[in-house]
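#help-structures

NK: newbie question. if I give both the sequence and a SMILES, will the prediction place the ligand too? trying with coenzyme A
OV: yes, paste both and it writes out the complex. here, I ran yours:
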Amino acid sequence: MPIQVRQGTPSDYPARERIFQGAFSAGLRPHIFPNGLTEADLIHNFSENLHGYKTNLSTSDTQAGQRIFVAYDTDTPADPSDLLFPEAWEHRAEYELSDEEKKVAKKIVGVAIWGLQPFARTQEQIDKEAAEEPPHAHAPGANGALLDAMDAAMTASKKKYIGLEPYLYLRVLAIDPAYQRRGVGSLLLDEGLKIADRCNVQAYLEATKVGRPLYARFGFEDREYMDFDVARYAPAAKDEPQHEFMVMIRPVGAKKIDGKA
Ligand SMILES: CC(C)(COP(=O)(O)OP(=O)(O)OC[C@H]1O[C@@H](n2cnc3c(N)ncnc32)[C@H](O)[C@@H]1OP(=O)(O)O)[C@@H](O)C(=O)NCCC(=O)NCCS
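OV: that's the protein plus ligand as structure tokens.
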């Protein structure tokens, strides 16, 4: 299983959706998309991702924005049930996959999306950036109240634990279930944390229960459980075990706990 890591590109979006659907089939995702992911939701997600790619990509360690990495299996194609770009997507022609890209998309087994803020900012700068952000619409089938509540809780935690400091934020780490517990998540974490080390910044994330032990091994420390009442926004979650996210911070220069780094 030779796994390689490379930077993400828009042609990875179908693979990315496939992996999110597999990796997040439990947890909160079923409450975020209570009726499953429709074609309209996919079109929305692809368009948002493409917009983010065009407007918010960090291409160097001195530029704030998104850094995306994918892991792919050079040998064995993953399940060939990749979603292709939806027929009605207006950018379809622009991102129609070549046969070669389709083959590669089937080999993608993991995705990591990071956000880099390499310099300290003043509160005025942070407020100005937030005010200048274009309005964000939720996917048509998404539980918008739940997403807004999560977003508010995440923003409050970031404000509390990062404040004005520079940081690298792990927005999403998701591995194809067939490839979990084989070191793919660790490879993607290693790649991203190199940026934190080069930039001399702390790393920050909100961990699911399954992710937490892995992050602890990479030097992330628990801060506190993120506080929001899922069942209030998704009544179907009321009898489920609590959906908890642990806010974790990897201090500047932290090493792997097992000393193998
Ligand atoms: C959490 C997640 C990203 C981890 O990815 P992964 O590829 O399974 O991670 P790794 O294989 O590198 O490490 C996972 C565990 O397997 C162990 N492992 C790694 N390689 C292994 C191998 N060859 N054999 C056995 N175990 C192995 C690791 O030591 C680690 O153990 P730990 O959890 O006790 O620390 C993945 O499970 C996932 O996508 N989960 C669903 C989505 C999610 O919750 N994402 C996290 C959001 S914060």
